[in-house]
Amino acid sequence: MTSKSVGLRVAVVLLLVVLAGFRPLSCRAQAVPRLSVSVSPSWVRFDSKTLGFSGDTDLFGGTGAATFNVTHWFGGTAQVFADYGDHVHLKGWMAGPQFYHEKWGGYIFGHALFGKGQTRVETVVGNHQTDNAKAYALGGGVEFPLGTRFSVRPIEADYLNTTAFSNSQRNIRISVGLVYRWGALKKHVEIP
Amino acid sequence: MMIRTKPVSLLLMCVSLVFLLSCGGGGGNGGSGGGSGSHLAYAAIPTDNGIAAFRISNSSGAFTTIFGSPFPGGSSPASVVVHPGNKFVYAANQSGNDISLFTIDSSTGALVEKAPRTPADVSPTLLVMDSGGSFLFAANQSSGTISAYSIDAGSGALTAIPGSPFPCGPTPVAMALAPSGNFLFVANANLAGVSVLTVNSGVLHLVTGSPFPVGHGPLGLAVAPSGNLLYVANSFDSTLSVMSVASTGALSLVPGTPVTAGTTPVAVAFDSTGAYVYTANEDSSNISAFSINSTTGVPIALTTNATVSVSTNPIFLTLDPSGKYFLVSSQGTKTITEMKIDSTTGTLTSSNTTTTDQPVTSIAVTK
């Protein structure tokens, strides 16, 4: 494991500890924001066996996303991501619909994202190759508001499919995130 | 509404655990050259001046091309061997008159050549290594010699044995080392003979009487696991001879041989048990399969599937370390095919195939 990997792991754990220490504020928690941006440290289990490696490769990095919601249950999100590991770097962008379901004082979200991924592989020092090809992600997570402005995503998981060097990689991405929110789309509640 | 703090904290802790538990990965699950559940194969491609690399699944036998393959090497690498420690690959560069040393990246399977190359004699085309990985022998086809080297187990570096290169008779075209490492057998195609050299700490001496007569055009050699029989593929005669090896190394033809093989047998190999022997027949594009009389060593063609068709112009048979199949290189189709071995009957059936951009002349596999 490289020092970069160790550093990223420590950063992720520290962030989680900090977030766990937040004392949630009273709020209309289930309100989905009109607009939000998020940053999410991530871990990707990259399917490098398709490149002839002996096993999968751990990549560490992050995702930045911007989301615009049309209703309290539907919106669109776009994200850029970059993750790095020994011999393999992966970065790219994806966008697609995102759906919400209120639960546990927050909401569960799911999305289907499509875009491009760039895979850079260097098995021999100084001799790397790069391939750009389609990428898509199917996944979701949970999000809990911490106040009117911030939310936390304690977990987000995606099946991340990339294509590189004529092979399709079936990757798993796990991330945690911090969200900054603007506006609120409230569920219509009928008062008896 | 208040968010319940406990579930959130628990979730966070779970995610923390996931991250911390994943600490073992980072760049693939390395191990020895094979990694878990797979092993590596390296193939010499002279016309590419490179070494092709594949990962082979232990369970399915499926090939995956190693990223970056073929890896650049010397000038016209004709033969490759893998050190038993699975850390190093050596290639004999026929046009470069030298030997390349590569290190194996255990996680990616990639090869990196370590400079400088070690000089050989003229036109090294064959390599063999003793089972302990202490000595490497390179047959120099044009000069009729064997270059002998000791191997540094830590760095893989080669050091020429004093007196190297050693004469081995003209035009060495095939080479085999006895399992005990005490005799080196060299086929001299133009003499229709096999030269035998004693091996003593890497120092070679021709055995009196060398070259011993065999059939015409001997191009393939294999020593029986017992070490007392040598099987010779006679390409011009399309036969398989069996030679008895005396304690001095002298060879004598076993009665009842040679036996008929396919057309132009150029390689011979045993299965892992030593109960069956096979020849790769270049011009009939098939493999002949024989059981072995356990008393006399005479090959007996199998009663069923005595010959099995393969792709055009097979030129060698390399036994996979699992013992489950042979890797067969076909020059005409530029393919490497796995031939699955039925351990009960000795019959072969075609399994996975992979393609190279140019013909392969030699293949070596990690344990």
3D architecture notes:
Chain A is mainly β and 192 residues long. Chain A has one helix and eight strands, in the order αββββββββ. Chain A has one helix at residues 3-21; strands at residues 35-46, 57-69, 74-84, 88-103, 106-124, 127-145, 150-164, 167-182. Chain B is mostly beta strands. Chain B has a domain at 261-355: Thrombin, subunit H (Beta Barrel), CATH 2.40.10. Chain B contains one helix and 33 strands. Chain B has one helix spanning 5-21, and strands at 38-45, 50-57, 63-65, 71-72, 77-82, 88-93, 98-104, 111-119, 124-129, 135-140, 145-151, 158-160, 166-167, 172-177, 183-188, 193-200, 203-206, 212-213, 218-223, 229-234, 239-245, 251-253, 259-260, 265-270, 276-281, 286-292, 299-301, 307-309, 314-319, 325-330, 335-341, 348-355, 362-365. In chain B, the strands form seven sheets. In chain B, strands 1, 2, 3, 4 and 33 form a five-stranded antiparallel β-sheet that branches. Classes of the chains: A mainly beta (192), B mainly beta (367). At the A-B interface, α1, β5, β6 and β7 of A face α1 and β2 of B.
Key traits:
heterodimer, A: 192 residues, mainly beta, Porin, 8 strands, elongated, disordered N terminus, B: mainly beta, Thrombin, subunit H, 1 helix, globular
